[in-house]
Amino acid sequence: MSKQIDARKIWLVAAERTNPNIPASLTGANAYKTRGIDYKAYDGDKKEKQYDGDSGQDVPVKIENAFNSFNFKIDLAPSGTAGEVPFADLFLRVCGMVASIDEAAGTVTYAPATTPDQIAMLDACVSHLADDDVDYVIKSERMRGQLGITIKAGEDPEADVQLQGDYIRPVTAAHAAPVFGLQDTQMAIPANAQNTPIFKINNKGICVEDFSIKNLSGYTPSRRNMPGGCKYTAMKKGIVEADITFMEPDWANEFNPYELAETDDGVKRVPFILQHGTVAGKKFSIECPEVQFIQPEKAEIDGDVGRKATIRFLKPLALMWLC
């Protein structure tokens, strides 16, 4: 008999896997407040083989290099306590970032890993709750992935997380209620003039409608399943870029976006900084000493003229939680 399961009764539980060969315990591990969670179980490469003499119809499909993937969004909410990592800490670290805590200054700084060996792993499960108090559990181990950040006017900053890990056959289990901890009290704050006071390119302030970094660390995951027992999620370093939409600046007295984008006399390498939040324990910044401003175009923002462009981060950026 079919089960009727409310699609809203779904949650993610995750824990860091500190030893590649020893699974992390998910019993009592943190559940995370996600939005738009989606997953694929038994994803992989579809292979077909047609042999000589076949009719052309009897061609079965084999799935090779099977894996699970989890995709979801989370708020960029603070811990609220000096020197403590934000709720997104685990996902930042499995998506190519390395944390550095300065207890004296009360800061936590994330920078891209210099080698893939520095990147953490996690074990996780997505659970559906059926009406008969049974969980339908999709679990994966040794997950890594990529994480993007979006800051949009009037909305809470959020992270877009995409993870890949080992395939484990989904099962049912007795219901275990998720525990969200302080996530119910430490909430993100919306991006606006009061909460996001600093947004500068080349030391010039701009009024931003939308800003999104596609892949914060530049590392992208790919699955490996090779003879010799080599089965894991590899991480490959690439380019970090952001899309930005902003109100038209004063070309004469602030800056001309087209002058900044010109490369006829060489690439202009300029600093970038944004700061979100003004209260200790509830603010973060993203900084990079050298970015390139690429091909601005006309945009419309609520009937007004604006510009949109791509920003390429030419040096490693730093995400700093200022506690």
Automatic annotation (TrEMBL):
Q: What is this protein called?
A: Uncharacterized protein
Q: Which domain of life is it from?
A: Bacteria
Query: Could you tell me which species this protein originates from?
Result: Candidatus Dojkabacteria bacterium
